[in-house]
Amino acid sequence: MQNILVYSDSLSWGIVPTTRKRLLFEQRWPGVMEMSLCSAGSKVRVIEDCLNGRRTAWDDPYKPGRNGLVGLAQRIEMHSPLALVVLMLGTNDFQSMHEHNAWHSSQGISALVSAIRTAPIEPGMPVPEILVVAPPPIRTPQGPIAPKFAGGDVKCVGLSAAYRIVCEEAGCHFFDAGSVVTSSKVDGVHLDLEQHLILGSAVAEVVKPLLSKNVA
Q1: How far is Cα 26 from Cα 72, in angstroms, rounded to an integer?
Q2: Which SUPFAM superfamilies match (predicted)?
């Protein structure tokens, strides 16, 4: 059995746009990925660590605990041994209370990669492979979250390209979610059900060869 940690935000937690409801495990993309990998013969368990509002490396001025860098090393220690860590963060870096651009967010991802690789895991346990998934671009925010993400569609421009550069420099794996899905047609930020299904299957295909490197 190989463990995959998905470290993410509400796009992976599975929030239903314009509600506070959550999709079922088999509907949200980490669950779809697990089922796809298992049906293909891989023995995997997906551990979801997905917090609504999580940034890459910044605090939320209104809610505690949303800085993705804080405590990440301990999460890696807690869940080890891990075959793979999937990072899908960045969308919340562009909330209206922040003036971040794509470069800033990419530096946050770089800090997360470093934290994973230097985590205090037990002797003999492997440093996990890392897959960075760039979230799809924010559309024009709509509905109740529109004020929170006002301007996010402009600030996030170039995110995928910036993440790709960081991943190349760090020697970790990269996938652009925007190559297969778009952000929600309902609120412009999250993922609709059909996007979860598509993304989970797509990421599973990316993950398959990465797992083969870590088979005991």
Answers
A1: 26
A2: SGNH hydrolase
